[in-house]
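COMPLEX REQUEST
Ligand: adenosine-5'-triphosphate
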Amino acid sequence: MLSVHGLETCYGSAQALFGVDLEVADGEVMALLGRNGAGKSTLLKSIIGLVHPAAGSIVFAGEEIAGDPTHRISRHGIGYVPEERRIFTGLSVAENLAVGRRPPGGSGAGWTAERIYELFPPLSAMRRRRGGAMSGGEQQMLAIARTLMGNPRMILLDEPSQGLAPRVVTALANALEGLKRQGMTVLLSEQNVRFAERLADRATVLETGQVRWVGTMAAFAADIEAQHDLLHV
Ligand code: ATP
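STATUS: Structure written out below.
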């Protein structure tokens, strides 16, 4: 569904990605692992068009999207949940979902608020609560939920478990497992290997802007040496 080849991205004169290749198949959850500053966020931002790659190609569902503006890439069907969890803090949960709604591109019925509440039970219990009055974990769920209401064919999640309490991380992983069972294609940037392990089929590991390891998530989770070398865990 997504094929990235030879991607190079720079911030001014500082190069952040060096010839990155990445494949995500339809219905696959791909973990993007790497230490702070390895280039995970930059790769996601390059895919969604927030930073423009200097070279390389990004093919999504058969179309070249590298260098396209973000609004066009998102209309192609890529949803993006940034690290900073963009939600409308002055609007309620239900209102945030309504604002995120976009009709499905294909023939399916698409996401509804009711389907979202089934996937994220904690949100169901707080439909009228303002976004600003929610915990970090609840806001993360709402940010993902709002993106799903746009009916993407694939979602990019930037470190969703970051800064969340263990109990909340478990609730989030449960919801994302449910999403995976529904066949969603996901590129999941994470520093938390245990969280990624629960969800991902495969892993791509970045180090200083280059791909250092690609394989099954199970193989990476079992390879303590690779984890130590590449992530220092
Ligand atoms: P983190 O977990 O800290 O977000 P990351 O793996 O997502 O790490 P990036 O944020 O993509 O890494 O950073 C990759 C490199 O690009 C780093 O060297 C970083 O300092 C640099 N970088 C990121 N954003 C900018 C920017 N806006 N301007 C200049 N350099 C940047």
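REMARKS: The longest strand covers residues 14-24. Residues 11, 14, 16, 34, 36-42 surround adenosine-5'-triphosphate (CB under 6 Å).
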